[in-house]
């Protein structure tokens, strides 16, 4: 299957700093990527839909100024957690959709575990 | 009410046992359904799609009842390696739009297969 890579896998940062997470589709072009967050023992929750060349669409309750998404190319989307606080500590996962149709198969990145001290 | 609800478990079963997971969904517009498997601290991986006619993949059988908005996963002859969290997932297929929400995840059912 297609490969989606996330980086970094683990990150620890101090409160107030910003953290950037990258999501790359390695062997296909992804017009649309999705960012999820998962707290311990909870489900994945969609944060935002990232579209190449346009603004991301955020889910209700997700602060767009805090979670900056950039999808500058067909193979890369980035999520920047700005002014991170301990409550932002979570497992962040991206997925990328193959092709343009919204029925295209989705592949997940390996996830990035953020710990804010 | 959550869009996709699952029994969180945990289910602790001996090797070789048969175990069944249930899932209900509230959005009748949901078109497609899947079971994903998520190992601890890893990303979810697609286990199988779920079809109205029911489908089987080796030891795994998935069924969908649209009238009851109910999905199930049956695992026969459980292996130690089946220990994981199983996520029930629904998918909306709307008009071709980048903004169409893709997947809604249940909170997962934790399975531990014991030797």
Structure write-up:
The complex is a heterodimer of chains A (117) and B (115). Chain A is globular and about 40 Å long. By secondary structure, chain A is an all-beta fold. Chain A has strands spanning 4-7, 10-13, 19-25, 32-38, 45-51, 57-58, 67-73, 76-81, 90-97, 106-108, 112-116. Chain A has no helices and eleven strands. In chain A, the strands form two sheets. In chain A, strands 2, 4, 5, 6, 9, 10 and 11 form a seven-stranded mixed β-sheet that branches. Chain A has a four-stranded antiparallel β-sheet with strand order 1-3-8-7, with no helix packed on it. The N and C termini of chain A lie far apart (37 Å). By secondary structure, chain B is mainly beta. Chain B has no helices and eleven strands. Chain B has strands at 4-6, 11-14, 19-25, 32-38, 45-50, 55-57, 60-65, 70-75, 84-91, 103-105, 109-114. In chain B, strands 2, 4, 5, 9, 10 and 11 form a six-stranded mixed β-sheet that branches. Chain B starts with a strand and ends with a strand. The interface between A and B is medium-sized, with 27 and 23 residues.
Outline the secondary-structure elements:
The complex is a heterodimer of chains A (about 120) and B (about 120).
Chain A: E1 4-7, E2 10-13, E3 19-25, E4 32-38, E5 45-51, E6 57-58, E7 67-73, E8 76-81, E9 90-97, E10 106-108, E11 112-116
Parallel strand pairs in A: 2-11
Antiparallel strand pairs in A: 1-3, 3-8, 4-5, 4-9, 5-6, 7-8, 9-10, 9-11
Chain B: E1 4-6, E2 11-14, E3 19-25, E4 32-38, E5 45-50, E6 55-57, E7 60-65, E8 70-75, E9 84-91, E10 103-105, E11 109-114
